[in-house]
Amino acid sequence: MSNPFDDLKADDGEPVESEDKTNSKTEPESGSEPEQSDDEPSAEESATESTDGESGTNSAADRDEADDRSETPLTPAEVGPAFEYSEVQQKPFYARTETVNEFENQIRTTIVPTLAGAEILDEETREIHDAVLRLANENPERVAELVLEERRQAGNQ
Description:
Blueprint: H1 19-22, H2 43-54, H3 57-71, H4 76-79, H5 97-117, H6 125-138, H7 140-155
């Protein structure tokens, strides 16, 4: 999609044009790897060729190390984002400026440092927003309580 908010049109009842119709050229996604021609060996192939040429005794040890690495589960830092951008449906988010500012401050001062402590340095905003909504889904009664509290406070002013 050329506009990141195109998927919002579907909620308004407007038809959303597919990417094929709007873009005659397909651009590679930012997360995809660049295409290589058959003439250019990949970095992995180059490394394999240079290792094979050095000595045959190291190849058995290399295979053992590779087997050990494939058996150990990946850490959250190694996995990368939990889901791709293509899985996201953007929705407008309506909140007061002070609430948004406080939330963004919490992201900077608490959430991101906590993730960094777990060696996650490539956090995505979509992951944080998804976690917030999942938290609200787990505690809908608390969400209702917060709305009621705000209404009561507004009524007392």
